[in-house]
Design goal:
Length: about 130
């Protein structure tokens, strides 16, 4: 397994990973990288098997997004290593790394990665009112 910080990614590889893990692609994801502090990819040979993105506000706050591991490779420590690499890349460049996840992931996976659950607010911008 090979882990790379800020690798060039072919959109087809990322689409294939997202489709396998989430059931759909994220069209135009390449534009997201322009707003990212960094991203980490996990490779098995030439196959992209894991990915995490770190967006930021340009100052103190980083946001862990799209943590993804191919379903055939889950529960092997790949997700944890992706998050660890992202945390290491952010240290010394800001103050906070945020993650938003459902309760099961937060009290399981993300707590094991060192995150502490906190109350947060959310507005669904796709709904009016």
């Amino acid at each position: 397994m090979r882990y790379e910080l800020r690798p060039g990614l072919d959109s087809r590889q990322l689409d294939a990973l997202f489709a396998a893990a989430w059931g759909s692609t994220k069209p135009g994801y390449g534009a997201v990288f322009g707003h990212s502090f960094t991203w980490v990819a996990a490779w098995e040979g030439d196959e992209l098997v894991g990915f995490v993105n770190v967006a930021w506000d340009g100052d103190a706050h980083f946001f862990l997004l799209d943590t993804t591991v191919h379903p055939d490779r889950q529960r092997r420590g790949i997700g944890r290593r992706l998050v660890d690499e992202a945390i290491a890349a952010c240290r010394g460049h800001g103050e906070w790394l945020h993650v938003d996840a459902d309760a099961e992931l937060m009290t399981g996976f993300y707590e094991r990665c060192g995150f502490q659950p906190t109350p947060a607010g959310l507005i669904d911008l796709t709904r009016s009112g």
